Amino acid sequence: MTKAEKQAEEIREISGSDPWKCMKCGKCSASCPSYDEMDIKPHQFVSYILQDNVEALAQSRSLWKCLSCFACVERCPRDVQPGRLVDAARQLVVRQRGQDYLKADEIPELLDPELPQQLLVSAFRRYRR
Amino acid sequence: MQELRKRAGELLADGTVARVLAWRAGDLPYNPEPAFFETEAELEHLVYDGFCGANLSKLMIEASKLEGKTLVCLKPCDTYSFNQLVKEHRVDREKAYIIGVGCRGKLDIEKIRRQGIRGIEAVEGAELDGPEELTIRTFSGEKKCAYRDAMLERCHVCKGKEHMAYDELLGESRDTKDAERFAEVEAIERMPAKERFAYFQKELSKCIRCNACRNACPACSCRKCVFDSTKFDSEQKANVDSFEEKMFHIIRAFHVAGRCTDCGECSRVCPQGIPLHLFNRKFIKDINTFYGEYQAGTGSDEKAPLTNYTLEDAEPSVVRERG
Amino acid sequence: MQRIGVFVCHCGSNIAATVDVKKVVELVRMEPGVVWAEDYPYMCSEAGQSRIAEAIRTQKLTGVVVCSCSPRMHEATFRKCAERSGLNPYMVEIANIREHCSWIHKNTEEATEKAVILARAAIAKVNLNTPLQAGESRVTKRALVIGGGIAGIQTALDIADAGYEVDIVEKTPSIGGRMSQLDKTFPTLDCSACILTPKMVEASANEKITLYTYSEVEKVSGFVGDFTVDIRKKARSVDMSKCTGCGVCQEKCPSRKTPNEFNRGLNTRSAIYTPFAQAIPNVPVIDREHCIKFQTGKCGVCAKVCQAGAIDYEQKDEIITRKYGAIVVATGFDMIKLDKYGEYAYEQSPDVITSLELERIMNAAGPTKGHLERMSDHRPPKNIVFIQCVGSRCADERGKSYCSKICCMYTAKHAMLIRDKYPDVNVTVFYIDVRTPGKNFDEFYRRAVEEYHVNYIKGQVGKVTPQPDGTLLVHGVDLLDNHQVKIEADMVVLAAAIEPNPDVRKIATMLTASIDTNNFLTEAHPKLRPVESPTAGIFLSGVCQGPKDIPETVSQAGAAAVKVIGLLAKDKLLTNPCTAKADVLACNGCSACANVCPYGAISYEDQEVRAPGVREIRRVAVVNSALCQGCGACTVACPSGAMDLQGFSNRQMIAEVDAICR
Amino acid sequence: MSIANESFRPKIVAFCCNWCSYAGADLAGSSRLSYPADVKIIRVPCSCRVNPMFILRAFERGADGVILCGCHPGDCHYTTGNYYTRRRMTLLFSMLDFLGVENGRTRVEWVSAAEGVKFSATMNEFVETIRALGPNVRLGDLRCRS
Amino acid sequence: MYKIEKQNLTALFRKIAEGRDLYLPVESAGQVNFAAWDEEAKVSLDTTKTVKSPKDAFFPQSETLYTCKKEGKKLEVTQEALREKGFVVFGMKACDVRGVEVLDRVFLSEPVDSYYQARREHGVLVALACKEPEESCFCTAFGIDAANPVGADAEKPAGDHTMNQTGADVAVWDIADWLYWKPLTEKGEALTESVRGLLTEAGEEEVLAEQSRIRAVLKRLPYADLSLEGWGGDATKEKFDSPLWETLYRPCLGCGTCTFVCPTCQCYDIKDYRTKDGIQRYRCWDSCMYSDFTLMSAGNNRTTQLQRFRQRFMHKLVYYPANNDGLFSCTGCGRCVEKCPSSLNIVKVIKAFAKEGGARNE
To answer: Three-state DSSP class for E95?
Structure first.
């Protein structure tokens, strides 16, 4: 397994999503509020992972433009949930840089029961740079 | 007892019945046997007391084939079996004249012996209207034993004093129930699986395959039991200390599931004292839990649980899920 | 002792690649009763079958075991082969070493071992097989069609054409079905009503066809050739023999607020109503739930105005019991509910509609008399957006996993019709794929683009947002240009997925026809027997079996009719000889078996029973082998084991168990 | 699952209804959905043909697990067969459990003709369960041990 | 005569069980039956009647005779090994000893049953006098002395050990805190020798006193006067044709309890059990009470319960004595009296006939 394949595999694993289920309908991109600011569009994100092109994703602006609003996750008819892939790619990059800012035991205090937990986690990971 | 003899005599005399099915006095104080009486003179040997535990309803299968009506004495719990046999077309209700005899619980001689009372010469107080205490004359003198303490297990969980079928009633019954019917089953259910297995292994390893349970059981009235039938490749007489015995008892209980009235004859007759009623009662408990309360032999037209269903029945996985 | 021949098939490499067939042959030779064993590349081929025939003759075989594919595939083939060679066909058993072995196991050693065990079980069974003779049962020369849509009508017409009586049971007050709701049909754009109405009239006029409208199937019993069906004829409250169909009652009815089902709730109707003008029968029904007379007891206007005196408030539901030889299911479809697709604002805005609603809007007899207008303010729309695949091809529980098949074509039709009639209206279609396999289908779609300039955008819509000004903001994406699209539409049309009519589950249960996870009825074989249900005597017509358009539905309807005709043309059917049989010597006559028999095949007789030392007359169970279908429920209910199932006897089953556990 | 059990090849008898799960197994086969070779299928016309004696017999003869597959309730080819099966097996399994037999050894699953995937998954899972339970020692007849 | 203090019994049993099997009355799940001794066994010498008789030790309820194995088309037949290990049956009662004698006459006469013979050769009978005869006992009717459980040699001259082929090998008495021990045969002497270290010499007085105590109890038992007058080998026709059977059999359920608890019933069935890779031929007790007893391809030779019921008692009281010098095939152990589910038993049969014949059994 090449490094690229391994990374793609890792993203799939972290996200728990199956990019092969994608039927390229584009509903994710149609739903995305940050679409215009992204260089790699949400639906492309899926195909990049299918092609093991994680490097490009890691370099992309999109990674940091995704708001984690999960509109794409909510609406994806094929259960591919591109938002999770974006999130996973971001996590991969953060890990590589050794930038795990949040320690696991700090998280409980930060939790607001009103907020979706995943949003919270991804937001912290992004903005506390 | 006198009354019963008198009434039976009258019915014989006026031709209502051709014979009387009751109990004949034994040669020991505790061993009356089921018997047919055809003349008034014979009736002097008729006896009815606490040792008349045998359920006579099964004998009505053969009696139904005889000419004329048979007067049969049935205790409240026997009438359930009788009804069940009628429902299964084994007994002809028209061929029976039922005297529903009163019952104050039936006695288990083993329970008396277990209290250290041996060498029994005579037992007093076993009659229907007798006192609450038995007086037992033994080789080593007179002993006392509370009637209740000598009662069969089944009487402690009695289904009630009501006769489910009768042409006339004779004698007062007393309440004997002082234990929960399913308490024993529940206690076993609470054991860990390994203990349950060990318990039944120990009990069933006593089984000698004498078939007393089967042959006494009013529900086990098959002309040819599958365990005797060469057509099922299941005939078996060996008592092997492995699964064979369990298979016999599981299948026997399964075959009578939903038909068993819980009359307790199986446990009463087992020479090895195996608590065979537990198998049947477990099925009854499960049936009640899964499919709603059901009592075989009440005389209702209700379909038996195993020949019935509802769309919402529990799935077999319920067994696994309840742990 | 049997003389058994074992024939091991290679199935080309299907079996031989994973199962060492030579070894199987070698090992089964050791089994008791086996006198002959051989292998061959294709046992089902003519050459293979002749080897079996040859061995039956030369080896005087009394039993045959074929180790091959599933018995569901070739059991009949090999049984016929045995019969031709003078061996009772029921002396043949199949060991399924393909589907249950070679195809699922990779390890040759394991697969071979399993193949031998499966063969052993079959040999053990054949050792106890007895020759069985098929009986005969009669065929009632009458068919029942459930559902009066185009599928049902066409099936009935074709069956009637062959000279057989056929009844149609239709739930609604009129036959016609979904097709009667359509305005035009693709790819010819002819008027739906114009081609359907003549068929409806024909069905009603045909003396071989009896229509039971406003009726439902209540109970089905029996089996192929001899079904007994209870049909509930719901009280119409109008005497069909007196009504002239003048329509005065509907005009005068004071209760007018009931949503009009035929127009998909886009307008209302009276409580006494016919669903549409061309309804057949043209006799109204009183919707008792909304009728003032039935609800309050006061009114009775319709009775007063009916000159024919046809109104009958006292009418009761009627149960009609009839016998049929065959039953066709043609229960059709409905659109899925869109309550889970909040992003399309279907429940928020009246201007977001489904395609079927658009059909009614475009139809001259529809709620807008055929004028294209918004349901909110009745203004003509300027921009219309069509969204494809709403709920189709969906992996989650909101929608359906399958492609609804007809949406691409009807959307092209709608787009084209709108552009034709209203050239100023902009029409945009968001699609994922445009699927147009079919004669003249792609040409039709291309015309929409090339001739009518319909704007097709590849990409799905993310959200439809109703704006304060009454427009609908459509957020989409153009995947080919890779940019987001925002369109201010006046009307949004959703190509909602179709699903089998929800009633089909109940009907399938009554018919014991199997149904798949999407509630489509299962066919006996997906390729080779597409119009038959696995349950004998039950046939499938139309969308109840899977999504299809009108021409496909009509062809399947014809195919189902042919199958029905083929069945009804027979005078007798051979019955399955694997029926239950009671051993009178062991029978207690207790009725346990009869209590569980679903066919009422068991009765009791007082018979003289004789055996050594036994001679008595007693009640014993008797199985009517024409009624018995061989399920075996009775065999387990019987405590004494007196009841046994031929072909699957207790001893055979136990022999198989023993062989497997050996 | 313990490592000790890895070499254990259980014997599993699967009674399959001809109209649904047997066809489901065929579908699993034609879809090449594998499950362990430990599973051997016996074809029955309906799940209601399966007598508790067959199941006990299998255990007695050394089976480690017995699974019974029938049509989904409501879909029985013979209308009502599987309803009886459901009651019979519920009671039988409950009794076996009462006697202290591991309740994972017996199972009823409803698998339709269209559910090849479910058939394969069910068998895989069942074999796993039996492997974890280990050999059936409580029900076997000693005379059948080799 | 020797004696051993009862508190040392476990030591005695342990010693006997060295290199041998020891069977004795053991309580399990509330019932006392003969079973193999081990350290955990709950030995119950106070039980007068074990549920099953100890005949199992020589004639097991089921035993394998031989095994056929099949490999390919090859058949291999292995006979079950004959008993080679010595064993001791401890605590048999006088009636049980007579039971063995009845079985001996069947199994050891030509053709000799080698399985039974091997067990008899390797088994040592230690018989225990009945401390507490019960109301269901009627061994005296058959000339058995429960107080002196020595078996057939009871009438033989004292000290003549060589002759004792059919009786007990050792007789023991349970008196107060002591167990008195008296070897009767060579086998008995050998066993005594192996446990000699645990025994002390004793006089006969206590035993004689105990015997007369027991005999006094036996005299006042309800069945003490039971007479077998009219029974025996000559009574075939008269008894067989009696109309009495017609009423006697009626309550009989046709179960096999009486035959299975009986020390003398010796009928068995031979059956094949299909194993994994062959067949195990075994025999197991059968009961003449069963409807499939002696079932042949042409049917049964006894088809009604009346016939089956009659057969059992005719065999015990007429046919067997006819072939065995007048010895009855009943020992009066009373197990059937206690265990019959319908309270039927051989005593009731004997009495019914006696009443008919006007004898003194009323």
So the answer is: helix
